[in-house]
Amino acid sequence: MADKPIVIRTKPPLWTRVKAQKFLLLMLLPGVVWYVLFKYLPLFGLSLGFTDYGFRAKVSFVGLENFQRLLSSSIFWNAFRNTLIISLANIVFYFPAPLIVALMINELRSLKTKRFIQFLIYIPYFFSWVVVGSIFVNLLSPSSGLVNNIITRFGGDPIYFMASTRFFRPVLVSSYIWRQMGYGAVIYVASLTTVQPELYEAATIDGAGHWGRLWHVTLPGIRSTIVTMLLLNLSHVLLIFEQVLVMYNAAVYDVADVLQTYVFREGVLAGDLGYSIAVGMFTSIVSLTLVLSTNKISARFLDEPIL
Amino acid sequence: MSTTTTTSIRETRGRKVFRVANTLILVFICLIFIIPIWNVLITSVAKDIDVMGTDYLLVPRSFTLQNYWRVLNSGYMGAFKNSLFVAFFGTALSMLITVPMGFSLAQKHLIGRSILMKAIVFTMVFDAGIMPFYIVVRSLGLINSMGAIIFPVALSTFNLIIIKNYMASIPVSLIESATLDGCNDVTILLKIVLPLSVSIIAAVTLFYFVSYWNRYFEVIMFINDSRKYTLQVVLRSLMFESDESLGGGQYVYNNLKMAVMVLGMLPVLIIYPFVQRHFVSGLMLGGVKG
Questions:
Q1: Where are the domains of chain B?
Q2: Which of A121, B19, B257, B271 could form a disulfide with A182 if both were Cys (CB 3.0 to 4.6 A apart)?
């Protein structure tokens, strides 16, 4: 014990290693600069949410004033309510859709057909929101849209979907499903192929029918994919932005204005930077809380923390 | 999934009904995805006379490339060129940053590798939001320059991780023997790793290209000068601001609108059939977890 421990140097000194890796480090440099500039610098910018930055030349610290302001703003609460309603609708209607379609595709016997359907429904995922929104404008047009053509064929009056406070949210949710479903379905189909065939055989021998196998073998087999997809959805459900920005218009502000579009209008268009950063921060924190608590729940009930 | 003979005999009838219903529903779902895209394509090549009525075209009635001719000789050409500019130079820049960084991060002995990876993944979990991002871009003096729609989005963590994971799967022995032969890290990347990663690099290039082509909100956030607008921005105002249900301005025939729309989705339509396989394998490689 009294002896000095013998130090065995497994690695050469740092400077020698840096010299040996100079090319590797140089290759890293542009990317690291990018991350610092566009991902980490903005994090420091969050502190401006506690200031009156934006209108005056001299920026002063205002503490929680911006947050008090947002809590008493009716436009903020309206945007918050809309965000929650649209998010909830997206989770309820969008989340199960790719899973169900993937299970249906999985029932097909021909590999070619399986591939073809995936190929087809995955296309819209690569279209911009502008293109997807335009496709819906075209589809729902009161004069020449397919949907209104069908409605008038059956004697109804054409509906102005894009300008209707009643129909705008359903339009948002359906276009969301139309664009994103293929992506989820492709992931689920790939995940379904990893379920071991022996499990199906064992379940059949144990007397499980078709639905029994689905419930006791298939779904548990892709459980971790389902939870991952749920977390992924939750992590951006409150941050819904570009889709609304593209598709909304003055006629539906009341039902379509979400937190992110509110931030965008207050910040970029009106120049109230400090306040809009505070609203953005509020959104990010609520969103992060949602994801972390779901992760915790999934860790407890499924023994499977994803993050 | 394979059903054993005993059960399939017992369940024949119910299974058959189920299978037919399943197929029919899937056909219906496919139609929901095909029809709107098909309509855009055939309307964009229809003559004026065929889009004057109130019909939603389901079968082509005429074929003319005149609409494209008219669009490309109008103000839309400028926006189309801007989109091409951004997509080409943006993709080139992105690849120049992403590939060396991915290669570097794939080397297990890299100094500070695990801290860097943590710092990178953290940016996927927590994002500062729109406004701090806007303020950084503004203080860099990028507002109203084409750089504003390239530099701030030049790197995608998702693509970086796809490349890093792929390059990390290349056998270390190959790299070690090259080192013994006197190669340095740059020559290893160029001579050994790149030739082995052609397919993943092609896929990431196309990911980047499509993402630049599709950008909308960064353009309207950072660009005020309408001469610098990209195709997505002008397509949006064409489709949404002159839509009759919104009480918009002058009337534009649908065939012209759809021709602009086809230009707006052009890269996807051209590229997608060839690389769809990679889009899937890329997703798997990157892992949903990132």
A1: 5-64, 73-286
A2: A121
**Helix A129-140 × helix A168-192 angle, to 10°:** 120
- Inter-chain residue contact A48 with B35, CB threshold 8 Å: no
Task: Note whether A154 and B56 are within 8 A (CB).
Answer: no
- pLDDT tens for A149-181 read 999 999 989 999 999 999 999 999 999 999 999
Best residue of B6, B48, B131, B243 to probe chain A, by most A CBs closer than 10 Å: B131
**Strand partners for A53:** A56
Does A135 contact chain B (CB < 8 Å)? Answer: yes
Taking the CA of residue B67 and the nearest CA in chain A, the distance in Å comes to 17
All domains in chain A, ordered by first residue = 86-256 (1.10.3720.10)
- ipTM of this predicted complex? 0.88
Residues of B in contact with A190 (CB under 8 A): 280, 283-284
Cα A153 to Cα A135: distance, rounded to the nearest angstrom: 21
Say which CATH class B73-286 falls into. Answer: mainly alpha
Q: Which residues contact A288 (CB under 8 A, 6 or more apart)?
A: B125, B126
| SS3 label, residue A303 | coil
- What is the nearest CA distance from B282 to chain A, expressed in angstroms? 11
pTM: 0.89
- A120–B30 CB contact, under 8 Å: yes
Contacts of A222 (CB under 8 A, 6+ apart): A188, A191, A192, A194, A195
How far apart are alpha carbons B287 and A158 in whole angstroms?
45
| Distance in angstroms (rounded) separating the CA atoms of residues B148 and B158 | 21
Mutate to test the interface with A, among B24, B37, B101, B130 (most CBs of A within 10 A): B130
For A89-110, what is each residue's pLDDT tens digit?
Answer: 999 999 999 999 999 999 998 8
pLDDT class of B67 with cuts at 50, 70, 90:
very high
Nearest-angstrom CA–CA distance, B137 and B147: 10
